[in-house]
Amino acid sequence: MSLAKALFTSTLARRGLPIQRVAVASNIRWYSSDKRLTEDTMSQNIRNMEYAVRGQVVIAADALQHELEENPQSHTYTKVLYTNVGNPHQVGQESLQWPRQVMALCNLPPSKGIDHPELAKVFPQDVIDRAREISHVGLGDQGTGAYSHSQGHLAFRQDIAKFIEQRDGGVTSNPEHIFMCNGASSGIEMILDVLLNGPDAGIMIPIPQYPIYSAAIACHGAHQVGYYLEEEKGWSMDMDHLEQQLADAKAKGINVVGFVLINPGNPTGQVLTRQALCDVVTFCAKHKLVLLSDEVYQDNVYDENAEFVSAKRAAWETGLLEQDAIELISFHSTSKGLYGECGHRGGYMEVVGMDASVEGHLYKLASSGLCPNLDGQILMDLMVRGPDPWTESHREHEAQKRKIYDELKAKAKLMTEGLNSIDGFSCQPAQGSMYCFPAIEMPPGAIAAAKQQGMAVDTYYALSLLESTGICVVPAAGFGQKPGRHGFRTTFLPSIDDMKQAIKDMRKHHEEFCARHSEESSKVA
Amino acid sequence: MSLAKALFTSTLARRGLPIQRVAVASNIRWYSSDKRLTEDTMSQNIRNMEYAVRGQVVIAADALQHELEENPQSHTYTKVLYTNVGNPHQVGQESLQWPRQVMALCNLPPSKGIDHPELAKVFPQDVIDRAREISHVGLGDQGTGAYSHSQGHLAFRQDIAKFIEQRDGGVTSNPEHIFMCNGASSGIEMILDVLLNGPDAGIMIPIPQYPIYSAAIACHGAHQVGYYLEEEKGWSMDMDHLEQQLADAKAKGINVVGFVLINPGNPTGQVLTRQALCDVVTFCAKHKLVLLSDEVYQDNVYDENAEFVSAKRAAWETGLLEQDAIELISFHSTSKGLYGECGHRGGYMEVVGMDASVEGHLYKLASSGLCPNLDGQILMDLMVRGPDPWTESHREHEAQKRKIYDELKAKAKLMTEGLNSIDGFSCQPAQGSMYCFPAIEMPPGAIAAAKQQGMAVDTYYALSLLESTGICVVPAAGFGQKPGRHGFRTTFLPSIDDMKQAIKDMRKHHEEFCARHSEESSKVA
């Protein structure tokens, strides 16, 4: 017996595992521990894909948080302030009460379920009634434990269609063309799966963008064709620039098939004008680009002079909808808005003007994942169809929503103004969404120091901010920006007190960072 | 103004939409309604992908069900009996009470939540205690509305690791290598995303197989390298055949990177022996194939002479685990077992022996979808860690599970025997899982008739069965089988009464079908 074998056999005995079950331990064959799967043999598309929202800085933040839990005295702060992801409940936003009550009742099994008399002492009658309706009509008496239709239960899709019609001033919506999904993310991925046909394919995306688009495009080894948003003009779009970018991509042999619009903007926070929307849908119709309209922040508009206009409404206003001249998919989610219910992964997409055969393939793809989760479906239904105005729950539900809205509005202003008050920071107003995306003047030494460490200066800066203050932001490079610009994305979701402190901390850090990197040759502290 | 324009403008007016908002209706430009996205321009991988479990026959079944609801007299039966998908709650299995009670409480918001005094009159104290523990420890007081760690909350992964260790007789499991996911499906898709690098890549899959594998492989335009299960020997594996298939694929230039094992079998229902498991893990180690072990039916073993052995346990018994000579990913789910909770999309995968950098990319991929849904995470936690033995809920929970198990066991036998009692049917015993996969002798006329209609004879048969009886099965062709074999997959999940009737109906249909197609030249009825 070789030494290795002897050691191995003694390990077996030491562990106290039932040796009699070890069929062949006495007659071991030895195989190489070389890996089949390495960075060189794995999917190179996945290897090359980036996803900054939970990238290097967040991994460092998680380690820091762990350290702080082990040893609260280890730093000048006692917790990590996560502003890297639009995750309102993580940073203290309380869930709305009514939808959670209905959800809870929908999950109770029949025997000790909705009809239990004591529950009437805990829940308003309208909550019990709505849960009964969902169980019977929505779920067709199959409960939350059965797979639904691959697109989600029809009754929920009917409610979504009604919501869309009302939102868009009567433009019709058909539940047959609504696909519920596990958050908007899974819908976006499905559409890109269908849309991208080989390495020549390209999609136009805004720069800056939310990185699920660049990530999904990279997964397919396809091209991202960026178009810049005009920062100085409130992150607006320049149609001439769009034409130019498209022409350049075509000239390079890229088969541009789609166009991504994010409105209200992520990470940029702008709310596009009606005219901009009409211009974009016209651009897509003219050039035959499938429009992916990310509208998950449609309820997050704080600027009183701004208004959310859906891409579908714009397609109707420009006549493109009735001409059947546009292929449009719009996305919505329970994770944003005033619900902020990220954990339940509720979402939908509405598919407009798609070729029927292609939509059949989309259905097939949705079917291979069987169905979106039922709790997310129920929550999506509750979000598009709140408590009836005459019910006990209605007033309180609306008041809770109002409170969250007012706070978000105040915090958007607070964060924008706070960032702009820091020398070297410049931040466009957050008209909507949950983010600020300041530009930061980097001292020359920082650029050199980051280069020396082989990382983008934005990442270098974000890691420094994290270490000094415990604030976790996402480097702007992860969203894309014009060459030479630097900065980060932060949410404005933490409490007002936390944000006031964060702005102070950011200012102090920036001053120290600039001092530390004031000369090009400065060494990293 | 052209007639088309005039008609369009009058439509606007007719709809009563707010005309003042129609910015450009008076100055409409006309664009082509040609589609960018057609079957020819969309992703050809998605176009070519098949997913039979919700394919043509199920779409026909849904239409039939709709027809029956509109007009219950339209057929000799009054409902569609869905046996196409392992969806227990859809066909009458009641949810277990304890996990649903805990889930419900976890979703209640703090203000009228777990601590409400009246709830103690509805729920046992141990349910309230467990929900409190989950809210505090599992969810870290963030509730179900926050995104979790991309792999799922650590406390849940710790419980999963403990479950795996206990199941595998002490073989260690590390929560850092567990990825919770939206059902096993999304885990399988993620792994194949990482594994498949370009069109030369191939994966060995059993024939017959569960079609998510062939579907996901097709999505990547990669190769499926089939290995046949030996039907006559209870769907066992022939190692010489595996060697041959691998050698043949390599000779064709296919870069075979992975191996799929489904145990207990889907659609085949066999439970592999300990020896077979040891042979498979050794085969994978020898040839450096990443092993994907689909173990979602591990709690569904009915044959008293059979035992579920995990691939990981076999890797330990063969010494491969301690040699670090195997790359293994195993999948589990809340959708099967005795929970049958399909709708909540709970699942996990355990990653063993994977290169650390590659696992980092897997984490990144998981992060791009943010996190698996929280309700599914909670349910997965409850499934791997039931009520404590001393609690009020324990006895009743175990009794409910036992009842479901006993029924499934009886139904497996009933369905196998029933199918074998039909002349021309031959069905291997379902030792486990939820399915029977009979072989059916097709009359020669049926093959000709199907060909004439351009479909597989299995599909032709399943559509005929559906129309005659209302029973919805999946054509065997959708899972793959040896050339010349025909049949279907059926679950044995409906009630015993429904299944007895189904067997009668299947027999009658088969006799009529054979009579109708007794001659090669017979016309389709």
Automatic annotation (TrEMBL), chains A, B:
Pfam families per the UniProt record, alphabetical: Aminotran_1_2
Aminotransferase class I/classII large domain boundaries: 126-501
Keywords recorded for this protein, A-Z: Aminotransferase, Pyridoxal phosphate, Transferase
Coiled coil region boundaries: none
Record GO terms (molecular function): L-alanine:2-oxoglutarate aminotransferase activity; pyridoxal phosphate binding
Cofactors that this protein relies on: pyridoxal 5'-phosphate
UniProt cross-references to PANTHER family, sorted A to Z: ALANINE AMINOTRANSFERASE, ALANINE TRANSAMINASE
Subunit description: Homodimer.
Protein name: Alanine aminotransferase 2
Annotated source species: Seminavis robusta
